[in-house]
From TrEMBL:
Species per Swiss-Prot/TrEMBL record: Paenimyroides marinum
Domain of life according to the entry: Bacteria
Signal peptide from the UniProt entry: 1-21
Protein name: Lipoprotein
Claim: Signal is one of the keywords in the record: yes
Keywords, alphabetical: Signal
Phylogenetic classification of the source organism: Bacteria, Pseudomonadati, Bacteroidota, Flavobacteriia, Flavobacteriales
Amino acid sequence: MSNFTKILWGGVIALSLTACSSDSVFDEQNTDEELPMSTNSFNNQNSGQYAGSGPGGIGWWGINYISPWDIWFRGASVNGLDDLQPFYYFTNGNMEDVTPYDIRAFAYAGLAYFDNTDDGVFHDVAQLDPVTGLPIQIADMATNPTQFPNLYPAANPHEVGNLVRIPMPIDVPAYPTPNSSVRIGDRNNHLPVIGATNAAPKYPTPYPGFNFGGTITPQERDLLANYGKIFFYEVHVYDKVTGAPVLTTMMHPKIETLPTGSNVDPGWKPVDYLSGNHLTGHVPTLGNFDLYYFYDDTMPAPGKTKWDINDPFYSNLCNSREVVFDVPAAVAPYEVQIDPVFKVTLDFFATGQTGWVNSALYLNLHSK
């Protein structure tokens, strides 16, 4: 069962198809709308798409995981809309859903993409050298390990799967306190990082970007800004009156299409499977977990994501190269009940006009 929901976004009304089982909520200009909890991007059998140009096109949400991280669409322009980088969204109640809690979230960042070879040299498969025709080299971490002590540590010298805990938290007090709804995004950079080269904050206050506070090198900062993402949140919930801690948990979005999921997509490949290995990544406080990346080797050359907003027949081909941890929900949940009424969820939402290209990782404390 599904229902159509109109979503008001910056003065534009777009039509979206939303699953009835969804219980995500967002507060946008004092509106309260359901959003898809399990949607598109990484399920080639049912990826979902928006058809037609401009707002109001007919569309549908596919099955699971509306992640915005696709190496072929970094900084994409769709329907005349540019600077469509992924962004990060936090809400804590709204005028119809006032919560009794405050949130503090610490983010864990790492490289979002894998280039097929775990040699410590990161290549951008979406950019080819005009002379050799091969993916261009972005960072040689193996040759310059002192420049990448966190992303390529001596204890775990692998190209992906090493996470950095960002020490400066994101504080989201309960509505109607100011900043009960926070967006973090950048017009140029893939991951909004304070101090990164070419940083252009899209929502400058109160958090123009994630703040590493000098805990990473300039080379790591810029590599993450261009090719990184937030993998986990360490979420702390406090009583908003007394300040007493109520809950601490590590959270991760739901991905049903992984090999251990309920709706498996064969596009998820073990990281470094081309060499016969299956790498694990370390999550602080949680342990080691298998790493996967989306690499559909059945696609014709050049094997990039084929997504045309005006042609839904091309929407089923995804080859994002995004890296994920296959972490059980029991270990890092996407939803935690705080009390009989309120819960916190880590999810995605997207605008109807641009779909997953400009969707957001969404941490939300609410009662529904």
